[in-house]
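Quick one - first record:
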Amino acid sequence: MKLKIGVIGSGEHFSRNIYPTLIENNDFEIVGVLTKKKKFKNLVCFNESNFYKLDLDFVYIASPSKTHSKFVIKSLQKNINVLCEKPFCDNLSEFNMIKKLAIKKNLLIFECFMYRFHPIFDYLKKIIFSKKFGKIKSVNSSFVIPPLDKKNNRYKKKIGGGFFLDLGVYLISLQHYLFDIKIKRNNFYTKTYKNSNKVSLKGNIFLNGKFLSFYNWGVGIDYHNFLEINFEKAFIKVNRFFSKNKLEKSIININSNKKIIFKPIDQFSLMFKDVVKNYKIKKYKVNELNNIEVQLKNILKFKNEF
């Protein structure tokens, strides 16, 4: 029997990336979407009151970030497991309420950083912790997208807009998910560029910890999406590290003479498979809850960016 999932939000990201994966997924049945639209894809649309009358196993929250906490709390109160787009929430007081509720209800809360389920992520993680190429000397990573339609939610401050919360959080997540490092308040420098409405458009982050990290995020002219790691004995670069076309091969370049090719794969599908396989396991629920907490504490150190 398929797990019943409801969707909150009907924006471009869900339409382009999540919806195609979910409708092809044998583990889930989308039973409805909470949206102001009267028609969305082939899904039944609901207002908030009627949406929460549905019998759901999971909810996928893809609404503007300022609404995340509200929908996470309401879903947990209705005994629904929660998958939520990043950032999961933007303050610790709300997260502590969510944490207590998730533990009390014995439910999964999960922040959707899908890139960590791609085989490239595991490959890099093994290299880093095996110290095959020695210690890391420096890291350089960028996630920059072309300008969007000005009606896009990312330009709307009041609903949690801004490109730090959409793109910069991926870079910050590397510190925990890939490198297992906590960011300290005294080891970073940031420079942010904002528009007249004080929405963060782009910026640079410099981290001086166990190794130097240079992170660049925002909206610009050219598309940048890469990760470079400079080890003592090797230089590794991965193009399209965070967001990948599921029809394209993925390539790791090691120095200038070696390429490791990964076959095309849908990292969103891999994420859902991992959730379905493990969501009832206590250790998994505790681990994902801790992941959200560490990520939130890290991004809150950059509060001026959003």
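second record:
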Amino acid sequence: MEATRLLDLTRLVSRLGKGALTGIDRVELAYLRRFAADTPPLFGLVRTAAGWLLLNRAGCEALAGLVLQNTPLPRADLLSRLLHRRDHARARAETAARKIATARSPRPGLARLVRVLPRPAIYFNVGHANLTAPGLSALRSAGFSIRVMVHDTIPLDHPQLVRADSIAPFRQKLAAVATHADCVIHLTQASRTLTDAQMARLGRVPPGVTAPLGVAVAQPDMAALPPGLELSDPYFVTLGTIEPRKNHTLLLDVWDRLPAPKPRLFILGNRGWAAPDVLARLDRLAPDGPVQVLHGLPDSAVSALIAGARALLAPSLAEGFGLPPVEAASLGTPVLATDLAVTRELLGNKAVYLPAADIYSWVETVVRQASIAPVPLRPPAPLTLLSWDDHFNTVLSVV
């Protein structure tokens, strides 16, 4: 008998109505869509402010429609309005989740809620939500095998790059995984080495499997770009949430030092947690200047910008995987990146690697790349696209 799959969908529900999905959100959606297309029994688990929700296959498919904006969110019910007075999107999202749930329980009733599901059963958590000792212990007591994807351990490896108040909660999550997981899903060997080292400090290194994420690049569509966007050649792009580890400061410093006429730089990404001085520099950018920040673009527009760029710039200080450089390489766009072990593992010699703090090297390389005449048609993509089928074949082969 095929094992029942219980997929944690809490992160996706929390993101409903809040704009474009982030990298981890996209991974949870990829699991939802794959599992919904497979034959084994499928259920979804969602934690809300009022307790746990259980979704059957139809509910999981309905949630996928909400995430993909095929169906609008309902008006928030009274319970959600009371629990989320200042977060209207979350109130509507949890209302929608309750409407498609088949069962619910208060927080202490998780084991009883899921004990009725067919056995054998596997709990999959790929979104870093609900990684608590009580929650994972309840699932284990209900007879579930537990498989958790750990995207990275950046809060512990590079605490200076994250909010100070996020470090202790992340350590608690990783400790719960170290204690209760039957299998940890790693995205690269480089990230696995770091994750195993951190879990060893916490007392146990669970069995694991390394399975790079699939990369599905949207078809470039120039018509999806914002009206009036000036695309004078040459231009460069950088893609990712605006936060310290993405090292936007370096690029702003580079563009300050570039000789005139400066190429354009499009910063594609929403604001995350960032230092006030960086946000202030972004706020001071001239609307018609060489550096522009664009957010909320559809995937087809992002692909179009990347495909036409002289290079994608990836000056990140730390990554667990790093999708943008892989996506750019898959489109045939040159990549200039900091020399991270994870990037070398994924791209090999398909990128130009530069020191993270060497502004001169970045200026010199950007000037040289901007001077290279573009070709009318790019050659075949220099990177074999990473496959979701390969990812799931690896993950689901674990007994």
